[in-house]
């Protein structure tokens, strides 16, 4: 019998009163990874109240000591590295190589932020008055409600949870219910690292109850910051809800990420980048490649090489080291992806595999590893002849599908890259530095890659997008500190008299009419 995963309030398991769902292994649907008790909105609000009660005492813990808790978490993740990686592969279907990379990202994040506990710097600022000093301080926002997706079930949450806790906030985390076992394992490591009870709560819930819980928490003044990773559509609703309560949510949303292949590109290198960007994680990344924008002069040759690479890529059991990608994450995502396949139109040419849709005995994929009937495995799809008015061009297609279009001038390529209105990640393959810098300057994307994949974050660089991909907030590196702290200024006048800024300042009398003798 599978262990029942429940929410926590006050560091204790919450009553399992809601609906229960099973989290299944998407590569073997008969393998129930966990049973999850879904909480209602009242439980979410109760977790926020508990976090509110615990937050001030946690904020009073010196920041360097909080940094040691982050260090403890990093060492615990390292000690449990293979077990956590295997769980990620089992529950969400990532290849073991990618799962290990995801767990390493937690370690990297902890290694970066443990030092920030000693570098939550403010500034001493000179005053315009004598005998007066000005100071700035970073202070925690309070209670952060974090809602994350399951395609990166532990790495992306670490981008929020680690800096939020380091900065002295309490956290209520709502992970994806279809990745609940990964979330519960990561949460237990966080608790074991030394985070006090009540400071870190986990609530498993569905979308409507999560939204209602956020609304209740904001209405009661229990939530000071919302962090959300998910679709652009849901992110817009979260941002609107936060705005009604004079808050700015930290939104990391979807992407329709372009990759431009110039006439001078190293085509073999570009093929490797496109293959990983488009089909790694079965295309289920917010940074997955959406549309290839290829120069007219190399379109045919690049397409031929890419088609060969996609045709020969190994799909199947994610535990096999030869596999490029495994299953889609859950039946819900598979059903949604089936709808995206309906966007293929008569003017498109499809390649990349022996079929489209789900891989079955009747719709086989050459070289498949494992039993396709056991899981949610889908053919890779290249859609050629994509036009700017096509849905496939305009919308994120969360799955193993990449569109291909053409361009003549770099200006046209940049216009096509930005046309869908997203702005998360963009890449260009070129051997011409001028093109690289022109593309960087022209695109709206928050992250730009030169001769590299559209995917691949590092823990010390800002991560986030613009437009439909986010509201300009950033995760990772020192930049995320602005999401989980507020600047507080202080002036200290020790002159013994009232000194009024802009009124009682020393006056300087220059002679601005003076001119040098031209001789």
TrEMBL record:
It is an enzyme of class 1 (oxidoreductase). InterPro entries: Ald_DH/histidinol_DH (IPR016161), Ald_DH_C (IPR016163), Ald_DH_CS_GLU (IPR029510), Ald_DH_N (IPR016162), Aldehyde_DH_dom (IPR015590), ALDH7A1-like (IPR044638). Its EC number is 1.2.1.3. Keywords: NAD, Oxidoreductase. The active site is at residue 252. Belongs to the aldehyde dehydrogenase family. This is aldehyde dehydrogenase (NAD(+)). The lineage of its organism: Bacteria, Bacillati, Actinomycetota, Actinomycetes, Micromonosporales.
């Amino acid at each position: 019998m599978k262990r029942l995963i429940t929410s926590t309030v006050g560091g204790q398991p919450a009553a399992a009163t809601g609906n229960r769902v099973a989290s299944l292994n998407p590569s073997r649907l008969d393998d129930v990874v966990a049973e999850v008790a879904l909480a209602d909105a009242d439980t979410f609000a109760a977790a926020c109240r508990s976090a509110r009660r615990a937050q001030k005492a946690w904020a009073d813990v010196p920041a360097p000591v909080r940094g040691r808790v982050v260090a403890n978490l990093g060492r615990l993740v390292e000690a449990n590295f293979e077990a956590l990686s295997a769980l990620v592969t089992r529950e969400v279907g990532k290849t073991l190589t990618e799962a290990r990379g995801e767990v390493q990202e937690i370690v990297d994040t902890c290694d970066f932020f443990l030092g920030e506990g000693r570098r939550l710097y403010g500034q001493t600022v000179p005053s315009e008055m004598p005998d007066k000093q000005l100071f700035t301080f970073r202070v925690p926002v309070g209670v952060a409600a974090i809602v994350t997706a399951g395609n990166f079930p532990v790495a992306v949450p670490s981008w929020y949870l680690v800096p939020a806790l380091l900065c002295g906030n309490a956290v209520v985390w709502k992970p994806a219910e279809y990745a609940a076992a990964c979330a519960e394992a990561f949460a237990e490591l966080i608790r074991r690292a030394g985070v006090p009870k009540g400071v870190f709560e986990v609530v498993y819930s569905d979308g409507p109850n999560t939204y209602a819980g956020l609304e209740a928490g904001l209405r009661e003044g229990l939530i000071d910051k919302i962090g959300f990773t998910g679709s652009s559509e849901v992110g817009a609703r979260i941002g609107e809800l936060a705005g009604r309560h004079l808050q700015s949510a930290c939104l990391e949303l979807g992407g329709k990420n372009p990759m431009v292949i110039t006439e001078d590109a190293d085509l073999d290198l570009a093929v490797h980048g496109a293959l990983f960007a488009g089909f790694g994680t079965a295309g289920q990344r917010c940074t997955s490649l959406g549309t290839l924008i290829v120069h007219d002069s190399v379109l045919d040759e690049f397409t031929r090489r890419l088609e060969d690479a996609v045709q020969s890529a190994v799909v199947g059991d994610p535990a096999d080291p030869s596999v490029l990608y495994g299953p889609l994450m859950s039946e819900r995502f598979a059903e949604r992806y089936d709808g995206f396949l309906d966007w293929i139109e008569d003017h498109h040419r499809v390649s990349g595999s022996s079929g489209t849709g789900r891989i079955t005995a009747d719709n086989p994929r050459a070289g498949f590893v494992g039993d396709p009937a056991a899981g949610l495995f889908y053919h890779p799809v290249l859609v050629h002849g994509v036009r700017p008015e096509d849905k496939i061009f305009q919308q994120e297609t969360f799955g193993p599908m990449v569109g291909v279009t053409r361009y003549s001038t770099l200006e046209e390529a940049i216009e096509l890259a930005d046309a869908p209105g997203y702005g998360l990640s963009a890449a260009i393959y070129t051997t011409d530095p001028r093109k690289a810098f022109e593309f960087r300057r022209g695109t709206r994307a928050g992250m730009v890659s030169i001769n590299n994949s559209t995917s691949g974050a590092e823990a010390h660089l800002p991560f986030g997008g613009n437009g439909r991909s986010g509201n300009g907030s950033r995760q990772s590196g020192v930049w995320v500190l602005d999401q989980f702290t507020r600047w507080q200024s202080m002036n200290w006048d020790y002159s013994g008299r009232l000194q009024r800024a802009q009124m009682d300042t020393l006056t300087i009398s220059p002679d601005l009419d003076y001119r040098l003798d031209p001789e």
